[in-house]
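#dry-run=false #mode=assembly
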Amino acid sequence: MKRFDVNCFLGKWPFHSCRFSTADALRAAHEKAGITGGLVSSVDSVFYLDPLSAEKTLHDELSGLNGYGQIFSLNPLLPAAVELAAEALERFHIRGIRLTRGYHGFSWHDPRVRALLAFAEKSGLAVLLSLRLEDGRLDYIVSPLREDTTALGAALGDMPDIPVILTHIYQEELTEIREAMLRRRNTYADLSYFKSSADCLERAADAVGCSRLVFGSGYPLGTLQSAVTLLEHAAISDTEKNDIWWNNAARIFGL
Amino acid sequence: MLIDMHTHLWRGQEERNKKMFADIRRRYSVSRILVSSLAGFDSDADEISVLNDMTLAYMREEPDFVSGYCYLNPRNPNTLEELNRRLDQGMVGVKLWVATFCDDALVFPIVETCIRRSIPILIHTFHKSDGQLPFESLGENVAALARRYPQAKLIMAHMGANVFRELPPIRGCKNVWADFSDSLAHADDLPYALELLGADRILFGTDAPLVGFQVSYGQLLEAKLTDGEYQAIAWRNSQNLFFGGCHETI
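#status=ok
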């Protein structure tokens, strides 16, 4: 069975060293874990005012890797964000848009956010909502906004019919927004921040079902092998593991 | 072999915790865990005694799997008596949490006893950008204690949580080891610690049940270690530190 990582990064993290941030390092780490492809975001795009320049760099780095696609990290409040997304789709064939509200601080009701989500729907793009990129206790210089699960649940209910993947979400947060997730037919969560217990994957599966979980590591900010070993050792069936490793992502992204 | 040298029982949850450790032992083939029992931040002498009794009972239930730390509140007047009693009962380390900073003068008699009895001290050390607990030690506190007592065997727990901030202060303190148990982990932590400290000063610990075992275990698997480095971190350093003397062997 194939393995796919929907949530990984290339680029320079601004706040400390991140030595595994090259395409070669990503591929090597994935190969060691039996992962044959993934969806990669640029860390730089989160922070740049001209994210397309970072997306161009990411696109060039990924061009030598088979099995990898690009997720555009975009601040919806940037001028002409929809046009930026359209250009990224045309030039880089992006598979989705990553929103990091913690750093960009937008309101879900902002018309610019609504316009970007409408563009995603029209273009068949998934949206990755990253609740954080690092643990908030590590913040240095910048303190990102912390997501409120009640507000997030309400926002999910108000979104167009697009695939939404909640990344960097704690299993406890997942349980809190379970009902909002299940009300939408295509909301998913990744494993990158399932850290609270050895059985937190089973708890997440009990809450929302394995059909709502996808493998995402957050690597190289997150530890790839922590997510890998969590899934490999989980007390769920092989069929359910295969859904999380590959089938659910294949259904979302048409792999 | 795998020794998890940083785990806990929580008062009121101990049976659930033990079930979880049995599950971890089965899932991950853990050879041994080192346990301290905790409750409030500032436990009085009676509570300390209850907590250490919990640890002792678990050690006796699972002698092939469980070793214990003596948890101490340096503010309690009977601390040295409690320490010596628990070491005589077979505990192999001391656990200090947040009752005092670790370089408070109240801690000195504990350290001096541990030096005499060749006992390592596990010191909770945790930097948080959103606010410290009162008396929560940082790397600089551990370094100060290490410089005062170069013969002491000190372990900076969690690598101080933020490795880039807390490891540099203890870099030159050769009598300080560090474990990488915590939930803040990312891919760079262990490689960074290897550069600063070397494999011989790093210990495998998870902070279970507060943190999932897979977090630290994944870091261990991911780090590009030689076989010798892996063995050192996974179990050999802990075996030497805790069981190298006359107390117990794996």
